Amino acid sequence: MVIQSINGISYRLRTAHDMTWLNKYGKVFSVIDETGSGCICFGVENSQGKYFFKVAGADTIEGEVSPAESIASLKNAVQIYRDLAHPSLITLKDSFQYGELYAAVFDWADGEGLFDHWNFDKYKTENITPPYQRFKKLPIDNRLNAVSDIISFLENTAAKGYVACDFYDGSLIYDFDRGKLTICDIDFFRKAPVVNTLGADYWGTKRLKAPEEYIKGAVIDEVTNVFTLGAIIFDIFGSFSGADIAERYEKCAFIPCSRNKWELSDALYSVVLRAVSPRKRAAIYVHQRLCGTFPQCSQQVIYPPLTNPLQNCIINIVLFTGNVTHIVCPFHVIGVFLCLIKRKFVHSEYVVLLISFYMVMITLNRKPFFPISWSFLMLL
Known about the structure:
The chain is α+β, with helices and mostly antiparallel strands. It is 39% helix and 17% strand. It has 13 helices and 14 strands.
């Protein structure tokens, strides 16, 4: 290992590599040198603002792939960021080859990573509360807003034909001052269809992976997205001990918390539990595939706005935007989650939304399918 510095900031590499070329883009004010992707990351500031440079091709200390593989992965990721552009996703500004290195440049996102493992030792030695624990202590409304942003992003991911891979709290930056969530590090998202070719070594943390992410040859699809989202929601609103987390690693399986360790309502617990239940998800998968065989339709249905922004979010999730698959996508499970938040969605509005859905399907000459009907009827 060699220790180098730029603008007085030290960073480590396995072999020496000159990074002073970054000075022509501005002043380096931050370095992250412990990523498994094989990239080394720099915060750079100039008169135009702050930027995040992700550089592949150097021999990093924690890289799990070769420099050449790191470059190939980052080049592929650049297109992913372009395709999945979203208000909550970090903004890609540029990408370029520099000698034997390859760099992707993003707008800087203020905030703290919710799983910044490179600072774990610092938190212990200096008795600092890690960002994720601080996030867990925020008022419920703040965390619900963050979940709403994640759902919106994953809905966009599904609509663009992508599957979330290696998506976890390490992909989340939270600005505690502004209450803003930014999503980053989606380099391993993949365009469907996706098959698990790595078996148990498929990308992702064992704390949150879906069952199919351990099985070689298994299909990774929107149902996997639902599981991942459900697991993240459990982590945000559930209480887990160190032993609970260790059990996930030992059993290579996500294990939800018990009801008495869940912060929200019984109904919400039931809905999110379904999202991470292999048996329930299997039924959803069958219906989603069945409905996906229907031809596309160019009609677009516009619903009147509801009074609560979270209610509008559920409308966005079930809105018919060109393909029946978007309605019957397993995200209806999470839509129910939003419907129930804080019990603001009163009984009469359940009925209105359900009737509206049936009217839409009648207009389109489509019969309502079980997953959607079940999702709303189980609440009545």
